[in-house]
Specification:
alpha+beta; Histone, subunit A; 3-stranded antiparallel β-sheet; disordered N terminus; 10 helices; elongated; Arc Repressor Mutant, subunit A; 2 domains; about 260 residues
Length: about 260
């Protein structure tokens, strides 16, 4: 059965176990809830992410893979068995799935099986990942891993590994602007704009630390994350360089369009 179901008065209480993980034995950590957003303020814990392979593993786990959840219940009146299936995104992945998905997820670099086995224990020790559970098929066992939070926000500074990802993301961002909008940019303008986007992030790092210290607790919901980003932008406007940077980006994008 792809879903843990308990009949109560003709209704079912469903634990949303994906169909592909039928029969999984959950760990105690796997049974626990996944946090929405965690702000990483501890420099030592943040330093554990200063590795492109670890960042890639976390990004793959955040993206997940398509799956289904099937629910079964008996109709109270007719006694008919009602089966429903819905599509979901599964975020508990095996090592093999992490390796396979690393080739497809934007912002991740391709990782090998040896890299995943090497870095998973470090991510678990730093409380970024937990072993979700184990599926046994005959004599074969497969472990599955899940992030401890849906989102992690590092507030202590820019990571070298993250800067590499941001450089690529900035270039892709500029490329999409020219593709999706009627905006023409020379090759030199595109390079400058991508660099300005990276500088923007760097100028926001100090405000990120300052605003993060104002948060009441480490755990947050999505609404708080939006407010956090808003306050970062407001605080960043206190830097003249930040204002000049935005003026230059505006000039590049709109001067000839």
């Amino acid at each position: 059965m792809g879903l843990a179901a308990v009949e109560i008065g003709g209704k079912s209480l469903n634990a949303d176990i994906p169909d592909s993980l039928e029969g999984i034995e959950l760990t105690e950590e796997g049974k626990g809830p996944q946090e929405e957003i965690v702000f990483i303020k501890d420099p030592e814990r943040a330093a554990e992410l200063d590795d492109s392979a670890r960042l890639s593993i976390l990004r793959v786990l955040r993206e997940g893979i398509p799956d289904t959840v099937t629910s079964k219940r008996r109709d109270e009146k007719t006694g008919d068995l009602i089966i429903r299936q819905r599509e979901i995104q599964r975020h508990a992945l095996s090592v093999v799935e992490i390796v396979k998905q690393s080739k497809k997820v934007e912002g991740a670099e391709e990782v090998t099986k040896n890299q995943v086995y090497h870095h998973l224990p470090k991510l678990i020790d730093a409380n970024y990942v937990v072993k979700y559970g184990t599926v046994t098929t005959g004599k074969r066992t497969t472990d599955y891993y899940r992030r401890t939070a849906k989102g992690f926000v590092v507030t202590t500074g820019m990571l070298d590994a993250d800067e590499k990802v941001l450089k690529k993301k900035s270039r892709n961002y500029v490329e999409k602007i020219t593709q999706k909008f009627d905006i023409e940019l020379t090759e030199e303008q595109q390079k400058e704009l991508a660099n300005l986007l990276l500088q923007k992030y760097k100028l926001e790092m100090q405000p990120r630390r300052e605003v993060a210290n104002l948060i009441r607790g480490d755990l947050a919901d999505k609404e708080l994350l939006d407010l956090y980003e808003f306050l970062i932008e407001i605080q960043s406007l206190g830097q003249e360089a930040y204002i000049d940077l935005h003026r230059r980006m505006r000039e590049i994008i709109f001067s000839n369009n």
